[in-house]
Amino acid sequence: MISFCVRRACWMLFTLWVVFTVSFFLMRSVPGGPFDGERALEPEIKLLFEKRYNMDKSLHEQYLLELGNYLSGDLGYSFKLSDYTVNQVIAEGLPISIALGLLALGFAAVLGLLAGIVSAVFRGTWGDVVLMLVATVGIALPNFVIAGICIILFVFLLPLFPAAGWGDFNQLILPAFCLGAPYAAYIARIARTSMLDVMSQDHVRTARAKGVGPVRVVMVHALRGAMLPVVSFLGPAIAGILTGSLVVEQVFAIPGMGSHFVQAALQRDYTLAMGLVMLYTVLLYSMNWIVDMSYAVLDPRVQLQ
Amino acid sequence: MQLTPSTPRPKTFMPVNARNLFAGLLVAALLAAIVWASLGSGLPPADFTFINSTEVKSVDPQIVNGSPEGNIVNAVFEGLTRWHPETLEPIPGVAESWDISDNLLVHTFHLRENALWSDGAPVTAEDFYYSFRRFLGPRTVAEYAFQAWYIKNGRRYSQGGSGVVPGDSVEVELNLPVDAVNTRRGKLLLGRLVTIENAQDLELRTFLVEIDGVEKKFLATDDQTAAESQPPAGVQWCRQVLLDFREVGVEVLDSRTLRITLENPTPFFLKLTGYYPLCPVNRKCVEQYGTPQWTHPRNIVSNGPYNIQFRRIRDRIRMVKSQTYWNRDSVQLDVVDALAVEAATTGLNLFMTGKADWIITVPPAALRILLAEDPPRKDINPAPFLGTYYYMLNTKRRPFNDLRVRKALSLAVDRDEITTTILAAGEISARSLVPPGIEGYEGQSCPHENPEEARRLLAEAGYPEGKGFPRIDIMYNTEETHQTIAELIRKQWQRELGISVKTRNEEWASYLSSQRQMQYNVSRRAWIGDYADPNTFLDMFVTGGEQNNTGWGNAEYDELIADAGRERDPEQRMKILQQAERLLMDEMPIVPIYFYVSKNMVKPYVRGFYNNIQDSHPLSAIWINRENREPTEFMRGRP
After folding, report:
1. C-alpha pair distances (Å), A10 with each of A2, A94, B399
2. Model pLDDT for residues A85-106, shown as the tens digit of each residue
3. Which residues of chain B are within 8 Å of residue A250 when distances are taken between CB atoms?
C-alpha cells in the first residue's frame, strides 16, 4: 500500500510537470497576447507591462521562472482580474465548484440508483422501458440543453427556482440537477445491469426461498452486491462533475472554477489559466487515486500493485 | 426436527464497517456542502440590481478602460465634473465651479469644501495632482493614459524616456528597495537632460542629466536588478527618466484650486474631467497598501456616491451609499448590486424573473420577440448612441490598394438588408463613420448603394464581373451576429460583383492580433465614442494611428485632424472635422455598416434612467418608485 502511494505520488508530480510544460508552451503559441487591446500600447508602456509579468524575457527563462514560482506555491497575479492573485481566485471559486459538484453527485447517486433498482425489479415492464429511455436521453443530451429545458420548466412555467445566481440553497438545485443528470443516467444503467446480474445469483434465490420479503431481498441481499460497479463509477464521475461544470456555471452564472476557466482561456489570462489547468490536473489525478485505493478497502480481492 | 432459520451471509465484497464509513463520509460531505452553500443566503437583497456583463478588471480608475469598469468607477469615485444623466453636459462634481481663459487653454477648477473621502479627509487639489500624475506616469501602465494627453505635455510625460529630448527639464526617479510598497515613488532628482546615448534601444538607453551643475549618467532598470547588480562604470541605476512633471499643465494653486493648462483648445475637456479615468484616488491609501491591495473593499478609500461593501469574484460587487459624499442627500438607492453575468440569456432570465432591475443587453433573438409584443412592453426602448459598426479594408494588400475596388465593395453592400433582416433593435444603416447625434456636426456620407456602379468600378479596376479578382475573406471575432452579418455581406458581394468571398472567425485575442499585424483582407470592427465629439472617431485614422489597422494614411487628413485640434472657433472646428470625414469617405479605407442602438431593459419602476447618446447611466441619479404607473424617463420617445 505504501509503495503504491509513493509510486503514485511520483507519477503525479511527473504528470503535473508534463501538463505544466505543455500548457505553458501551448498557451504562448496561440496568437494574441494578454496586452493586445483595440489600441496599441506605447512601446515604453508595453515594455513595462511585459517586465511586470516577465514577458520581456525569453520563453525559456519565463518557463523556468514560472516553474520556480509554482514550486514555491505562488501562482502569481491574474493578468485580467488585476485586483486578485490566482490563489485568491481559486480560494473563492473552488469551494463553490466543490459544493455544486457534491450536490450534483448526490442527485446522480440517489436518482440513478433509484431508477436502476426500479427498472431492474420491474424488468421488461413499461416502467423499465420509460426509465431506461429517460436514462439514454439523459446520457445523450448535453447538460446545457438540459439546463435550457429545466429553466423553461422550473423557472418560467412553474416558478419554483431562481433563474441563476449563487448564495441561496434554492439557487443550487437546478444547476446541481443539470450537472448531475448525465451521471444519474449512467448510474441508472450500471445499477440496473448489476442488479439484474445479482438478482439471478444463488444467494438471492435462496433468500427468496426462505421466505424473505421482496423488499428486503432487493434492498439488502441484492443491492449490496450490485453497489460495487456503481462505486467504481463514482471516481470518474466525481472528477467529471468537478471539472465538467464549465457550461452549467455559465448558464446559471455561478462564480465557480468553470466560469473562471472559460474566461481565462478567452482573455489570454496566462497565469489564471495555468493555475486552473494545474488545479484540474491535481483534482482528476487524486480522484482516480482515491478510487483505486478505495477498491482495496472495499474489495479484499483487489491487490494494489 | 426444526429448521433454525439461519440466513446465510450474503457474499460481501466489502467489510461492513469500511462500507459504512465510505457512505457516511459521502453523506457528511454532501451535508457540509449544502450547509456551506446556503451560508450566503443571509444576504439582504439590494435596492437595485443590474447586470454588469463581466467581472471588472479592476476598480482602480487609472488602470481600467471598459464600460463595465466605468459603471463601477463612476459610482465609487467622482471627478472634477460629472455628466448630467440626461444631457451628458458637464455639471459640477468635486469642482463646484471653474473658469476658462479666453484662449480656451487654461481651466481653473474651484473645489468644493465639503467634498470628502470615505475616511473623512477632504478631497484637495493635491489629490487631483497626484492622480493625474499617477495616470500619466508610465509605471502605472495605464492603457487609457491617452485620455489625458489633451493636458499640456501630458503625452510627453506618459511616454517616459521616449518623450524627452536634450535640453528638457527632467525628473530622475531613483530605485527603491525591492520590498518597498509598489505604488511608492522613488526619490526624484530634478535636472536638465544633456543627451541620450543608445536612444534606439529601450533597454540600454543611457541618459546624461545635469543635476545642480553636475552631469550624471543614468540607466533605467527595475528595483530587483538595481539591488542585485552593479551598474556599468560611470553610470547610476534609476527607475526611469521622464519629463519634469512641472512642465505638465497641472498646477496646484491652493488646496482648493487646481489649474489645468491644455495643449490645444479642447471643447470636450470639461466632459473628460468627468470621465472615469480622470477620477482622483487617495494617495494615502494607494501608497499604504500598494496596488492592487488598495482596491480591496476593506482598504479602499473613495470619494464617490457609493462605497464598495464587498466583492465576490465573477459574482457581484455590492455598493452601499456613502455617508461622506457631499451630495449624499440626492442619492436615493442605499444598496446596489452589480452582477457579473457573462451570458446575455442568463441576464435576461434574471431580469424576467425580477432578480435584476436593469440589464445592458438582450440577445438578438429575444429582442425581436420582445419588441414585437403587443401591447408594447414598458421596459425596453432601444435608442441610438455613439457607436459605429464597420469593415476595415487592408489597403496594403491587393486588390484593396485600388480605390475603385474599395468603392465597389462599399457600393455593393446592401446595408438596409442587414439592419432589417439581421438586426432587431432598429439599428440605423451607416454611410458615414461619425454617428448622428453630435450637436453642430453633419456626418459626411459615402455614396448610396449602387450595384450597377459597383460593377462598373470593378471592371474599370480590371476585374470585369469579378474575373481575376483574388479570393478574399472577411474576418470577424467569434460572435453570432458578426457571423450572420459577414455571411450576408459575403452573399451580397458574390451576388453583385461575382467575386469569391470566404468568412473567417477568430476569437477576440487572436482577432486583435491579426488586425495589428494586418493579417486580413476585410475585418469587422466597431468603435464606441469615448466622448460626444467627432474627434473620437476621426482621430483613429491618422497615419499610423494605434487603431488605424487599415494601412491607409493621408497627409491632408492628418493635417485636418491637427488643425481641428488647434482651432478655437467651435463652428469652424466642426467644419474642419467634416472635411476630414469627407476625405475619409472618399478614400474608403473603411466601409461603414450600421450605427449601434442601446439595448437596455429597465423595469418600469426605475426612475431617473435616461437614454442618451453615450449609453451612460449614473447610479446616483436613479431612484425606485414601485407605485409608478407613468411611462418612465427611459421610455420617452417610444410609441
Report:
1. 12, 25, 59
2. 999 999 988 888 888 888 898 8
3. 342-343, 346
| Residue of A26, A45, A86, A204 best to disrupt the B interface, most CBs of B under 10 A | A45
List the beta bridge partners of residue B242: B171
For the stretch A122-150, pLDDT in tens is 888 888 899 888 888 888 888 888 899 99
For residue B191, the cross-strand partners are B170
- Distance between B278 CA and the closest CA of chain A, angstroms: 19
Q: Which residues of A touch B340 (CB under 8 A)?
A: 253, 255
Count CB pairs under 8 A between chains A and B.
215
Which stretches does DSSP call E strand in B126-183?
A: 169-173
Q: How far apart are CA A77 and CA A89, in angstroms?
A: 10
**B224-246 tens-digit pLDDT:** 889 999 999 999 999 999 999 99
Cβ-in-10-Å burial (0-12, 13-18, 19+) of B274 comes to buried
Q: In Å, how far is A163's CA from the nearest CA of chain B?
A: 6
This prediction's pTM: 0.88
Q: Alpha carbon of B257 to those of B121, B252, B253: distances in Å?
A: 17, 6, 5
Q: How far apart are CA B370 and CA B575, in angstroms?
A: 41
Which of A41, A44, A151 would best serve as a mutation to test chain B binding (most B beta carbons within 10 A)?
A44
pLDDT at B40: 56
B546 touches chain A (CB under 8 A): yes
Identify the residue with better confidence: B439 or B4: B439
Q: Closest to A297 (Cβ–Cβ): which among B18, B146, B355?
A: B18
State which residue of chain B sits closest to A251, comparing Cα positions.
B346
